[in-house]
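pls read this protein:
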Amino acid sequence: MDKAGVVFVILTVVTVMVAMWLISGVYVSMTTEQIEYETLYELDNGVEVRQYGELTVVSTEANDSGAVFSALAAYISGKNKEKTRINMTSPVITFGEGSSVNMSFILPEGYDINNAPVPERGDILIRVIPARKVATITFSGYVNDNAIEKNLDLLKSQLNEHDLVTKGDFFLMRYHPPWIPPSLMRNEVAIEVE
């Protein structure tokens, strides 16, 4: 095979791989249950104020997001006392800084604190997040400190400009797994507001 043929084969393989990556990202986006909310109103810079209903979550805390995610993924994959598999939902909620990361998976519709499978591990907790109003700003791409800080600053400026009173700490909501194309990723910085 000549040089042009080799280049054509390589470009074809790369194109097929990128297409499969994009298709799998779209498939995951379309098949994962997303938690419903009502958009109450919008501010500048893409900031939304939403109303969420009561959510039942499974949560844990660890030194890094990889360990936290693995523990929760094991729980929904059947590593619980009932050996029940639970469908993944989005978003995944994360908060914490430094050496402590707290992550929560929202349990799908039909599960509540009374019927959720009992965790095998003592550090995995099932809890209820009461209905609340939340201000959010959405961004795409990989989550890193710069992206979080930039969007947090935009969100804070909008909250201050509109005299919105916050409750609690800021948190991150991630809608997609890290292996899908960055342009398809949806992430949000959020905080509860009064």
